[in-house]
Amino acid sequence: MSDNPFRIFVVDDDNLQRMIVTDHLQGHDYRIHEFGGGAECLAAMDLQPNLILLDIEMPGQSGLETCRALRAEGYDEVQVVFVSAHDDLETLMAAFEAGGNDFIPKNAAKDVLLRKVEIAIEAEEQKHQLQQQLSYAQKTAFTAMSSLGETGLVLQFLRSSFQCLNLRALGDLLIETMDQFGLHVLVKLSDAGEEHFFRSDTTCTELEKSILGYAAKLGRISQTGDRLAMNYPNITLLATGLDTEDPELIGRLRDHLATIAEGVGVRIDAMAREQERLRQANARMAGIKELVDLIAEIETHQASNHSQLEKLIELHRLQMEEAFVFLALTDSQELQLHGIVDELVTQVEALFVKDNLLALRLSGIVDKQQQLLKSE
């Protein structure tokens, strides 16, 4: 209280009454000002009183009128304790309706007056504490809302990064996200010796590439003034122009950028694995295609061989029948030779049947593999 003494206005048209009240208040850390009427009190409000002990019955402007004028002019924080010789219900209701905070009978004992002042002091301190708590709560709520919005940007970036299939697309998404954070950044993404550079509004200059090369030699997270550098596997990020007067914001951004940078590194590793799996799948598909082509060629060649073999067998049968005429064979000999030829034809035809069944199976496999190749 000594650094900011409690300021009290004593307003009463009775000089003796003012002197008594002032005497009761002596010996405490109060700064007291006396006024003989409501107009004088209103004219001195630039002194910023904490408490006004206001007599109700005064000539000219009454205490009730004075209080109403105070409230109308916006002095809602100052406490008004009415002083009156009347304490009936009508007077108390009038004091309440005028905007008073408390009431004390005129000529009240010293301890009663001091207790009323103590209550006023306690009420002001409680109000001040509540205002501080409200301010802190509002600031906390604003910070939470800001953090929630920033966290949403982080989550959106991580979700969208899964759709990026190369460094260029991932870098463009990262720059877009940094723009939403209101940050100016330089970024280097790398993978297996390949490097891509990005910046917020245009392409990186050679000097900026050199700066990123220097930043890559710093620790995982390094901050100097308004610059924040981050190094994670496959990524170096340098943010500049941070608001150094808002350390809480910088702290949140540091956490968010760390999450994003780590997510970028993980995504680049995942893309490398996806590319390797794609390369292996393409190699397997190429091998399958080669095998399918070979099977199809074998199938065609086999069908041609079957056709030629059938023609040869039929030609051989005709030649043997013509030879029988010139060999002068007996009927039994001709029958025996015909039997041998027929047996050979039967065996060959049985082989043809087996080959045809195998050919049908191969043809079905070829058709399935060709359909798979077309779908790829």
From TrEMBL:
This is Response regulator. It holds the Pfam family Response_reg. InterPro entries: Bact_response_regulator, CheY-like_superfamily, Sig_transdc_resp-reg_receiver. The keyword Phosphoprotein applies. The modification 4-aspartylphosphate is found at D55. Keywords: Phosphoprotein. It comes from the Bacteria. Residues 7-121 form the Response regulatory domain. The keyword Phosphoprotein applies.
